[in-house]
Amino acid sequence: MDHFRTQYEKLYDSDQYYWGLEPADFLSSLLEVVDKEPKDIKVLDIGCGEGKDAVYMAKQGCQVTGFDITESGVRKTKLLAEKNGVEINAYVDDINTFKTNEKFDIIYSTGTIQYLFPENINSFFEKINNITNIGGIVYFNVFVDKPYLPLPPDWDKEEKMWKTGDLFTHFKDWEICKIDEVTFEDNGGGIKHYHCMDNILARKKI
Ligand SMILES: C[S@@+](CC[C@H](N)C(=O)[O-])C[C@H]1O[C@@H](n2cnc3c(N)ncnc32)[C@H](O)[C@@H]1O
Predict the structure, then answer these.
(1) Residue to probe by mutation, ligand 1, list 57, 110, 112, 115, most atoms within 8 Å of CB
(2) How far apart are the first and last CA of the chain?
(3) Which numbered atom of ligand 1 lies nearest the CA of 19?
(4) pTM above 0.90, yes or no
(5) At a CB cut-off of 8 Å and minimum separation 6, what does 62 contact?
(6) Could you write out the DSSP letters of every residue in the chain?
(7) Which of 17, 33, 102, 144 lies 20 to 30 Å (CA to CA) from residue 190?
(8) Residue to mutate (ligand 1; options 68, 100, 158, 186; most atoms within 8 A of CB)
(9) Atom 7 (ligand 1): residue with closest C-alpha?
């Protein structure tokens, strides 16, 4: 993977779906929080991986945009969309530098925020605020550091552990629908380990 910025470029470069095809369990509840018909809901998936979540949202009728830094992930996202008979605007981009002229009703990012370089964190959340429609929601999670948990074996060199609660500080002007912190087991990289993750679901105030 030497010249790639993330191990996922190679991990996705196979017929198998590294993350499987089951969408994240929080997705169905996101649609219930937004006061619009699915066909009118514009979704942005930041770090869409191989597209399982983006395709799920498109299958619910939403207009879905997703980007990931991996070409292999974006290729598989498009393939999965095609196989499911839905359209997704999927492209390669970097969470650190992405730009868009669009606004969204749901912006979510799972397992990717920790790839933000420290100097881009504040401008990223300002951008998120600017591109979320009033009444729209965000769902984000990020891995947080715990002294009793070693760094995961499948950690990329560009990933940075966050401190407990830091994610939430970027949403003080938003309506907080849910925040929590969970520790869970993972087998990524073939070695059993644990992660601790902060999660937030917040709505941009009217
Ligand atoms: C833990 S995976 C999560 C993938 C997907 N969200 C999911 O839940 O299946 C992290 C994702 O972040 C992507 N990624 C890594 N660095 C990135 C960057 N700078 N910008 C955008 N995506 C990045 C990886 O390629 C990978 O797909």
Answers:
(1) 112
(2) 45
(3) 9
(4) yes
(5) 31, 38, 39, 41, 42, 43, 106
(6) -TTSSSTHHHHTSSSS-TT-SPPPTTHHHHHHHS-S-GGG-EEEEET-TTSHHHHHHHHTT-EEEEEES-HHHHHHHHHHHHHTT--EEEEE--TTT---S--EEEEEESS-GGGS-GGGHHHHHHHHHHHEEEEEEEEEEEEB--TTSPPPTT--TT--PBPTTTTGGGGTTSEEEEEEEEEEEE-GGGS-EEEEEEEEEEE---
(7) 144
(8) 68
(9) 49
Ligand 1 atom at minimum distance from 50 CA: 9
Name residue 176's amino acid: I
Q: Which atom of ligand 1 is nearest to the CA of 52?
A: 9
Q: 23 CB under 6 A from ligand 1?
A: no
Each residue's pLDDT expressed in tens, for the chain with a length of 206 residues: 458 999 999 999 999 999 999 999 999 999 999 999 999 999 999 999 999 999 999 999 999 999 999 999 999 999 999 999 999 999 999 999 999 999 999 999 999 999 999 999 999 999 999 999 999 999 999 999 999 999 998 899 999 999 999 999 999 999 999 999 999 999 877 889 999 999 999 999 98
